[in-house]
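thought: user wants a sequence for this fold. calling inverse folding tool.
action: design(structure=
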C-alpha cells in the first residue's frame, strides 16, 4: 500500500444488489488498493476500504485523540507536581516486584 493510493479519488459504484456484485467490489478494492464509495440512488452511502487503510485511519484518529487530550493538560502545573519521595527508590529491601516473606512462627 502506498500513500499515493490514499490520495487518489476513490472509485464509485452503485449499491450492489447481489452477493456476486459485493464480491466484485471487494475484489476491486483489494486488487487496486483504493477505496470504493458505494452509492444508493446517486448519493454516496459508504466506503469500502482495505484493512490497511482502516488501520491507518484508526491510527490517525488515535493520534488526534492523544493530541486533544494533551492540549487539555496544564503542563505548567504538571511539571510543578512533585513525584514520589526519593526514599521510596532508595530502600533496597522493599521491592514491590518481589513477594514478601512470611514471618517465621
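)
observation: tool returned 105 residues.
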Amino acid at each position: 500500500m502506498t500513500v499515493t493510493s490514499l490520495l487518489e479519488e476513490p472509485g464509485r459504484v452503485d449499491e450492489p444488489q447481489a452477493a456476486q456484485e459485493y464480491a466484485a467490489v471487494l475484489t476491486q478494492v483489494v486488487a487496486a488498493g483504493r477505496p470504493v464509495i458505494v452509492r444508493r440512488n446517486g448519493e454516496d452511502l459508504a466506503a469500502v476500504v482495505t484493512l490497511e487503510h482502516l488501520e491507518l485511519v484508526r491510527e490517525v484518529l488515535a493520534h488526534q485523540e492523544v493530541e486533544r487530550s494533551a492540549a487539555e493538560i496544564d503542563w505548567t502545573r504538571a511539571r510543578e507536581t512533585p513525584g514520589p519521595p526519593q526514599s521510596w527508590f532508595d530502600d533496597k529491601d522493599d521491592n514491590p516486584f518481589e513477594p514478601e516473606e512470611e514471618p517465621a512462627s
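thought: summarizing for user.
answer: Here is the designed sequence. The CA atoms of residues 48 and 54 lie 9 Å apart.
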